[in-house]
Specification:
The chain is an all-alpha fold. It is built from ten helices and no strands.
Length: 171
């Protein structure tokens, strides 16, 4: 019954959060309940499984759940799977796949993902170095609420306009 699945998920959440998360046995039991709820169609349980596995650094287990969550436009899941590919966590590092997931997360409003894409264009990681696109993604990060994105965008924009803003600009 649908209510049983929801109850299973609710118990899983209780067992995997707060002080219960620190108790290894309760946390493991919660993950088991979460997995069952996911198998029987509780989408939130599947999303939480991916996040739990990611936070526990069980990247192989996290990847399929994060991928499914990303397909349903979970911006944080997209950003996390991008990081798995960028850093090569239990997979071969792949900047092209990382950028794909980071770009999707950025479009969904994840400011960290926007900064990661900007850095990829800045350093030529899986792409040609492209200052225009670097600046564009810093601006998106800024629009998504990132102070660092705003600062980086402003610095590049001022430099493009020939505006000197700091002591070191004169040297």
């Amino acid at each position: 019954a649908k209510n049983d699945i929801k109850s299973c998920y609710k118990v899983a959440v209780i067992l995997t959060t707060g002080k219960n998360k620190e108790n290894q046995e309760k946390n493991k039991l919660g993950i088991d309940y979460m997995r069952k709820a996911c198998i029987y169609g509780e989408i939130n349980a599947c999303d939480d499984l991916g996040k739990n596995y990611y936070n526990e650094k069980s990247y192989i287990a996290a990847r399929p759940y994060l991928h499914s969550s990303c397909l349903r436009d979970d911006k944080n899941a997209c950003e996390q799977i991008g990081t798995i590919y960028r850093d090569g966590h239990d997979v071969r590092a792949n900047d092209v796949k990382a950028r794909f997931y980071y770009e999707k997360a950025c479009e969904l409003g994840n400011e960290d993902a926007c900064i990661n894409v900007a850095l990829m264009y800045r350093g030529g990681f899986g792409v040609d170095i492209n200052r225009t696109l670097e600046k564009k993604y810093y601006q998106k990060a800024c629009k998504n609420g990132s102070q660092a994105g705003c600062g980086s965008f402003t610095k590049l924009d001022n430099k493009d306009k020939g505006i000197k803003t700091g002591f070191f600009d004169f040297f």
